[in-house]
Amino acid sequence: MKLNHYIDHTLLKPDASPQAVIKLCQEAINYEFYVVCVSGCYALLAAEQIRQSNVKLAVTIGFPLGSSTSEAKVQEAKIAVEQGADEIDMVLNIGFLKAGLTEEVEEEIRSIKSVIGEKILKVILETCYLSDSQIIEACEISEKAGADFVKTSTGFGTDGATLEHIRLMKQSIGGHIKIKASGGIRDKETALAYINAGADRIGTSSGIQIVSGL
């Protein structure tokens, strides 16, 4: 197993600087991480940095709350792809999901997937705010709407990924949709535990420590 190929090397801090994003991209190239994940304002900068490499670009949408209008999220996703994004990490509307507005949640995911075409769509569930039944429902809605991944967390909620939630998500999806674990994953042992539980990607700002075994 090449652990570095599971890593989405991430920088989403509100005070992230252009210099820090450039550093993130160089680290991703040096360590051959699969993806760099950045906020929308840095899509162009990151795309330019990784242009000559095999590293992919993921850009967050509706981040971190998920409560933007659907129209705004769709436009964000459209712009991100135009600026070089290979993957979109969107936060679903958590309030709508918890209120039972499942048709609205599904339509939003479907609209974003429609505008990005063949690019990868990851739907962030923010599992710390959801019951087990709501996690199952969110997975089913995401899959039905055409998402490529379901993802545990933004890293900005009250908790990050848990092994229990990864196992629950794995049981709730079909074979053509994948899982990204993110939030609080900072060492090799933890990353491997999530992969063994069913995660196909690891979102982390600690990628170097993870692959170095530090």
The proportion of residues in beta strands is 15-25%
Largest sheet: 8 strands, parallel, barrel
Structural class: alpha/beta
Counting structural domains, the number is 1
Q: In whole angstroms, how far apart are the ends?
A: 18 Å
Say how many strands there are. Answer: 8
Q: Give the CATH class.
A: Alpha Beta
Radius of gyration: 16 Å
Overall pLDDT metric: 97
Strand order of the largest sheet: 1-2-3-4-5-6-7-8
Going by CATH, the homologous superfamily would be Aldolase class I
Put simply, the count of helices is 9
CATH architecture, by name, is Alpha-Beta Barrel
Order of helices and strands: EHEHEHEHHEHEHEHEH
Unreliable segments (pLDDT under 50, ≥5 consecutive)? none
The helix fraction, in percent, is 40-55%
CATH names the topology as TIM Barrel
